[in-house]
């Protein structure tokens, strides 16, 4: 499940759960209490992936990035903040996600997108390249559009969702011992 690329192996902090069917390759750093669920594919080969604390990447999601080039000297790494829930079959490619974000099932977030803190992205949404999603809103559609401000309950749920996955990954880790 953890594979080297050019001598670089994924770096997992304490308390990280990675399902045995997931594949993580190369320059990937995952902070404490995060979880990677079945059939996730993450390739830190042409740039790097950084995943924050208490973040969960759910089943069948694909994480990748963009290599550096003459026109884009730094390329686009994939950076995901703390307390982020990435739903099933999500595609994240060379984007930056802040903290306390929920990415709905089947969403696609493309190169050079910046998602600020406290955002919900609806299932099946397409976030095209070079967009910024402003903090505190629900975004839906293909291409994505700002739908409305998040409610207080939704804002609270963002952290609850992440904490639920911390509890679940702890149960998986205990069972594996």
Automatic annotation (TrEMBL):
Q: Entry's InterPro entries?
A: LbH_gamma_CA-like, Transf_Hexapept/Carb_Anhydrase, Trimer_LpxA-like_sf
* PANTHER family assigned: DYNACTIN SUBUNIT P25 (PTHR13061), PROTEIN YRDA (PTHR13061:SF56)
Q: What is this protein called?
A: Gamma carbonic anhydrase family protein
Q: Which organism is it from?
A: Pseudoalteromonas caenipelagi
